[in-house]
Amino acid sequence: MSKQTxxxxxxxxxxxxxxxxxxxxxxxxxxDNFQISGIQAPTFFRQALGMVKLASCQANLELDNLTKKEAxxxxxxxxxxxxxxxxxxxxxxxxxAGAGTPYxxxxxxxxxxRANEILGxxxxxxxxxxxxxxxxxxQSSNDVNPTATRIAVLMIFATLKxxxxxxxxxxxxxxxxxxxxxxxxRTHLEDAVxxxxxxxxxxxxxxxxxxxxxxxxxxxxLSIIGLGGNATGSGINAHPDFQKLVxxxxxxxxxxxxxxxxxxxxxxxxxxxxxxxSGALRALAVEVNRIANDLRILNxxxxxGIHEIKLPRVQPGSSIMxxxxxxxxxxxxxxxxxxxxxNDQTISLAAQGGQLQLNWFAPLEMWNLIFSTKIMRxxxxxxxxxxxxxxxxxxxxxKTSFDSSMAMATALVPYLGYHEVAELVKEARKHKKTFYEVxxxxxxxxxxxxxxxxSPNYMVKPGHIDKDILSRVKKD
Length: 476
Fold this sequence. Notes:
This protein has 476 residues and is mainly α. It has 3 domains: 5-137, Fumarase C, Chain B, domain 1; 143-395, Fumarase C, Chain A, domain 2 (Up-down Bundle), CATH 1.20.200.10; 406-472, Fumarase/aspartase (C-terminal domain) (Ribonucleotide Reductase Protein R1, domain 1, Orthogonal Bundle). Helices cover 58% and strands 7% of the residues. It contains 19 helices and 8 strands. It has helices at residues 25-33, 43-62, 68-82, 101-118, 131-135, 141-177, 197-222, 242-254, 264-269, 272-299, 328-351, 362-386, 395-404, 413-416, 418-430, 435-440, 447-453, 456-459, 467-472; strands spanning 5-10, 13-18, 182-187, 190-196, 224-225, 259-260, 309-310, 392-393. The strands form 4 sheets. It has a two-stranded antiparallel ribbon. It is elongated and about 100 Å long.
């Protein structure tokens, strides 16, 4: 049985559209042309696109560009779109014609057909409301899609920021839990001066605070929108007050404090705001990847590695080696971070890929930004719940490594001198003794002074040179 259709006509001629579809000829052609990935627009973008259309409708009504009857029907249809009623009608592939024109026309057609239905006309008739003439009035794909992308990224960034804050708090709690666990510090992967395990984790928490601030800086750039610029930035066919008014309407609808762009040509041809948002995600990914790497190194073992911490055991690690357990959560986080860093390269290329009055890569930037944010947000939740919160310190191994290292040697340099301490270190290594054992036999200073200088708390924070101890040091 053949599928029932209706005939619509556009600039290319007649085309058959599914009879009951809310979309029209433009979407039908796009569905046929772009069968690429099977990936559809994310929910955040669909909702943001609806918000742009609703704000435009409200502004156009206030500026007498729409009748009250048209505007009411358009507003009702648009709200239904935002609420998800037409998700099955908005299924275009994310890889499509430049500037996201198919996206813009897809929603225009859905809203127009639903508005006509509300007003008593058949789908496809466009008797009362036309996709281009009313729904898209004073708009273009070239300003609609970048604006919707900004709103969508701001929406998902809000969920990411919440997860970064939770992740930071978990790291901070571990820093407090391990604040008195002194251990060997390492630089260049070699033994260095003492630190505490808590200091390592509080440093990770501080890095997350910096990443959070970088995200918030990107949000400021995303909040400047170019709606009203129309096709090139000139604002052709838009009322002189449209830009300011539609920005106010969209701010109220979205809940974000948006600002009209001072130069609409700039927002049409420059996507620097998307590049900044992607850069913030890349910076976050780099930091989280580094943390995941550190945790894998510190967990390494359990018998033949550093093994200063114990990561939660979440699943078997090998199909051939019995009882082997891998740092699976940290490994997954590494892969997420690599993907985000790779997506940033795509966005970088897209941001510099536009020409003259238009950057037409908005759909590609939109999908990569939202995908990167989504996997990073979900990854941080996994990392926190299944790894960070369950980390335990391996106190026995930490003490063994610290006692057998020369990490404490640097603490004596201000009192004995760099060269002299280096000789003591070499002697300890040669005779396979601890640094403390060698120094305590040299009668270089009173034992109580030596014990003070080499006490754990004395070595892991700034402090003045103790002049009294210095006066008691025995010089050759």
